[in-house]
């Protein structure tokens, strides 16, 4: 890629743009899922204040205590129109399911159905709240926890009225999806424009700029040497909540399933079905069965001909 060393990008993030031994972009505003916890609430409920639940079974135990003692949801999360499909992906992995195995939809597997039923049960019990504005609900103390992007960290640091920590998503791992945006160069432009575009991409993602961007927003640095920078080291020591995302990236994440990111309309389609089983309380097996058929139909129509 001109004079840019592709190895200078964080391996896990760089490989998100790889398909059949070729890379089609580079990372820029990259994130992963995080759990945010109100430490005052954890203490009041008699729970640890230095970690999150190790798995979703323990989450249920925590949520029961929070509901009983504080009468509020343990966690608030966005609805299906605002990336619930991204956040639920980690839960479905933790249960041993997935949205797909490459181009094969997997919504109707036993494990995927189990994850969907668990989500539905947690919403029914008042343990998980589906919200149109979850960061405000958490930041103002109306929910004890938040399942959101690392990209929400910068805003919450400025606006939250409660003390909080960030933690990994419940396991077993990997149980958190990577996300965010990358940068790429269109194929159908002149070589001169391509070269200029690559120079601009290098500028946007260089060590100095990725540090500035990540510190201000909460997104992760995308260049490896950013973590060796003295100012970045100092920042992470003073802001352990930002360190969580970097550590989780190496220990508890994997690239997203094809059914969400490569199949046209995948995220919106999955999010709509998740709204059906949470907000609408529809039967999980029926809703996921519909999702399986719809996804397969789109793959057969839009993907399979191109693969051949």
What would your notes on this structure say?
α4 packs across α5 (110-124) and α13 runs antiparallel to α14. 49% of the residues lie in helices and 16% in strands. With 308 residues, it is of the alpha+beta class. The strands form four sheets. Strands 3, 8, 9, 10 and 11 form a five-stranded mixed β-sheet that branches. β1 and β2 form a beta hairpin.
Characteristics:
single chain, alpha+beta, two-stranded antiparallel ribbon, flat
Helix content: 40-55%
Major sheet summary line: 5 strands, mixed
The share of residues in extended strands comes to 15-25%
Order of helices and strands: HEEEHHEHEEHEHEHEEHHHHEHHH
* Coarse morphology: flat
Q: Quick recap of the structure?
A:
With 308 residues, this protein is an alpha+beta fold. It is built from 14 helices and 11 strands.
List the helices and strands and how they pair.
Blueprint: H1 11-14, E1 18-19, E2 22-23, E3 26-38, H2 39-44, H3 56-70, E4 75-78, H4 84-94, E5 100-101, E6 104-105, H5 110-124, E7 128-131, H6 134-139, E8 145-149, H7 153-159, E9 164-167, E10 176-183, H8 191-205, H9 207-217, H10 230-238, H11 240-251, E11 253-254, H12 258-261, H13 266-278, H14 284-307
Parallel strand pairs: 4-7, 10-11
Antiparallel strand pairs: 1-2, 3-8, 3-9, 3-10, 5-6
Helix pairs in contact: 4-5, 13-14
